[in-house]
Amino acid sequence: MILVTGGAGFIGSNFILDWLADSGEPVLNLDKLTYAGNLGSLASLRDDARHVFVQGDIGDAPLVDRLLATHRPRAIVNFAAESHVDRSIHGAGEFIETNIVGTFRLLESARGYVAALPPDEQAAFRFLHVSTDEVYGTLAPAAPAFTEQHGYEPNSPYSASKAASDHLARAWHHTHGLPVLTTNCSNNYGPYHFPEKLIPLMIVNALAGKPLPVYGDGQQVRDWLYVKDHCSAIRRVLGAGQPGQTYNIGGWNEKTNLTIVHTICDLLDELSPRAGGQSYRAQITHVADRPGHDRRYAIDARKIERELGWRPAETFDSGIRKTVAWYLANPDWVRGVQSGAYREWLTLQYGPQ
Is the pTM of this model over 0.90? Predict the structure, then answer.
């Protein structure tokens, strides 16, 4: 069995679904079920004995200690995090508590658990800490992409909290010998993505006839990674990565935000045309840029390809088409996550919808 934290979130739920389909090894899923945690994403596993769900916080040391002692996982994959930059600007406290304090407590629980294992189980154990490319800061237009040797220069409360968690994970490996692996990924997209992030927000708003809010000039550049590719990379790192190492995971897909929005509009024009025949591009609205908005991120994913033989399977064109098609086919899931708190957040961030 493995322990997955944050397994009801976007990437975590995709990882669990793919893990059970790929290996069949049971998963203990610990998730706090904050606004972005959604067991509906795991509805297909409701009667599957291989998926054991526990609602709880990674910062609850007695709970985590009890779960580790009871279920004896061979690995921990830590997805649990507050992850939305905009929310971190409006209120950083939860990001500090979960991403820094929570990661510290989870590392401490793992350290105590591993120390009591037999030597062969100690040697086989892994703690995989999932992080982000945002810890590296921003890149000039022509600058080389982020490698694993790039210095940390976080520019938002979110990325600062994730950078701190990365440093803790590294320290627990080098000081305490905990077999830690760290992954830093680029922007994910795909099924089950909570509609506050760019791609699902544009799809959901477009279909609802609402404005498509684009920050500033929309020329911010991100590297885009289909979530199923990210999950396959994590499985590969967990199985063959070297403890103490960091692996950057990217999709080799640098796109401006405005290009992303145009692509989504064009796909919706094709797959779900508006009644009057007008393009969804007419709904695009430029809004004031957010404070400290990093201009460009880009991942150099050559290390994971060179050392572990992983490359993404999807191009951006294939991945975004699958993503738009998924949202069109799953309106019930979308309705289920659009709570009152979600609508209040959109009003706070972008104005009346």
Answer: yes
Give the residue among 128, 31, 147 at the shortest CA–CA distance from 74. Answer: 128
| pLDDT tens column, 237-296 | 999 999 999 999 999 999 999 999 999 999 999 999 999 899 999 999 999 998 888 899
- List of long-range contacts for 255-258, beta carbons under 8 Å, 24+ apart: 255/221, 255/222, 255/224, 255/316, 256/218, 256/219, 256/220, 256/221, 257/198, 257/214, 257/215, 257/218, 257/219, 257/220, 257/221, 257/222, 258/214, 258/217, 258/218, 258/219
Q: Across 233-301, where does the E strand assignment appear?
A: 246-249, 254-256, 284-287
Three-state DSSP class for 126? Answer: strand
How many helices (DSSP H) and strands (DSSP E) are in the chain? 14, 12
Active site residues per annotation: 133-134, 158
Return the exposure string of 64-86: e unless at least 16 CB atoms fall within 10 Å of the residue's CB, then b: bbebbeeeebebbbbbbbbbbbb
